[in-house]
Amino acid sequence: MTLDPWPAPFASAPVQAKVSLPGSKSLTNRALILAALADGPSLVSGALRSRDTLLMAAALRSLGADIDTTRADWTVTPGPLTADGSIDVGLAGTVMRFVPPMAALASGTVAFDGDEHMRQRPVGEILAALRAIGADVEGDRLPFAVHGTGSVRGGEVTIDASQSSQFVSALLLAAARYDTGLDVRHVGAPVPSLPHIEMTIEMLRDHGVVVDDSVADRWTVAPGPIKAVDRRIEPDLSNAAPFLALAAISGGTVTVRDWPERTTQAGDALRDILTAFGCEVTWSNDGLTVVGPDALRGVDLDLHDVGELAPAVAALAALASSPSRLTGIEHIRKHETDRLSALANELNSVGGKVTELADGLVIEPAPLHGGVWRTYADHRMAHAGVIIGAAVEGIEVENIATTSKTFTDFDQAWSALF
Ligand SMILES: O=C(O)C1=C[C@@H](OP(=O)(O)O)[C@@H](O)[C@H](O)C1
Ligand SMILES: C=C(OP(=O)(O)O)C(=O)O
Questions:
Q1: Whose CA is nearest to atom 4 of ligand 2?
Q2: Cα 165 to averaged position of ligand 1 atoms, centre (Å)
């Protein structure tokens, strides 16, 4: 039985380890959607098996796909898109946002709901966009319902995606199946997490879909079939953050195996981020290896493109010997929790000196002490907590099980490194 709060392992010596990590959440959930919309069966190898991806598989089954998740390689056999029931999106942004544009193509009604906090996370822009292109959608946030009629007209639509890149990805993923395709424009403050939109576009092109992204803030998808392709999922590079951070804070050496040489995953930015903290970072066929310095130096980073890394980066910054400034991440207030406020609260509660900005955090060096680290049902707040716990004795992480959103048995994988 896992204790709650969970005593985080403390690194009393430099950690030396090589780890293999589970598949990427973002790649797995896109692969499943595209496979369920494709023109034939396909295989998703190395799929992530975690709460977010199992919720996605269940959602797609309720829209008519046959998905076998019993083996390591998942098989997806598309069926006629039908709907009559409800979909639980949990706390998964990718399920709440990527599935409705597909549900609009099904015949029948689907009711969407999820965890309590999910009712606060924004989705209205997608639902309004679906209405604008001919779909029948009831509601502006969870719970909402999509009354599918078997087809969607498609066409031109303008959205404000400044709160989440997932608004754009969601519309693009199903767009080739709309009668006239889709022409999406973004108007508003800059879209965050752009690598995730690049991931969507690259995967659509792998499936033979024609996407034009040559004009900034505009994406057009031509109507046509989505070809079935077998795909191998890369390890989740954002979930690599705490593991590589362990080398950084303990002056150790950690290798994450099978790190792709080239990828659209936002987590690849860890190479530059850890270098900025003073780590030595090298890529080889073996994986990505990080060697921690004697002391971490503070960083000044705009994380707008890679906001999901912010909790781990903030934890590292709190352990650095000089001040750090993390900016460009107002949108992470709309993630699993208000991450800027949660990080400031928890770091300050263990002795940190953290000030919230509207769009970031200023983190100054301060001696940290033990205490309970609250996670706000946020897997990445738990990652931040275990990083602090590895460097500071006596940290107890509340609800470590929340990590199962994107990493089943994270606590065991983490403890094995000490
Ligand atoms: O499309 C995706 O798979 C994701 C996009 C990003 O969302 P935001 O654009 O809301 O930050 C990222 O933070 C999230 O973890 C996953
Ligand atoms: C923002 C995140 O998740 P979601 O896919 O639920 O938006 C995240 O994993 O950091």
A1: 93
A2: 6
